[in-house]
Design brief:
This protein is an alpha+beta fold and 98 residues long. It has one domain (8-87). Helix content is 23%, strand content 22%. The chain has 3 helices and 5 strands, in the order βββββααα. Strands 1-2-3-4-5 form a 5-stranded antiparallel sheet, covered by helices on one side. Strand 3 (35-39) and strand 4 form a beta hairpin. The longest helix is centred in the last third of the chain and has 11 residues, at 72-82.
Length: 98
């Protein structure tokens, strides 16, 4: 029997509320030790720390993959850095809580 594997981690500011998923980042496996940091169809760019649209797999260039794929430890660290800066309707999750 194949062992189950973790293929996604989620950071969510409001996991048990009506706002679940709105301020949410997913870290998803995209190959052997290749992980993407995702937010609503956008993928974190390691060089600019900006969110870029993630194209279909057949349209992802080597350049895109080199700036948008990470080893797991780096993907988790980048997600934790990017998470507090996410804005929905101009407000961070922290601003909504205060």
């Amino acid at each position: 029997m194949t062992e189950p594997q973790i293929t996604r981690y989620t950071l969510d500011a409001f996991p048990y509320s009506d706002n679940a998923g709105i301020w949410c980042i997913n870290i998803e496996e995209r190959g052997e030790d290749q992980w993407a940091v995702l937010w609503h169809g956008y993928c974190l760019n390691r060089r600019t720390m900006q969110w870029d649209y993630e194209p279909l797999p057949s349209s992802r260039t080597k350049r895109f993959l080199s700036t948008h794929r990470f080893p797991l430890d780096q993907a988790l660290a980048l997600a934790k850095t990017a998470f507090p800066k996410i804005k929905v309707n101009g407000r961070t999750a922290e601003e909504v809580l205060s």
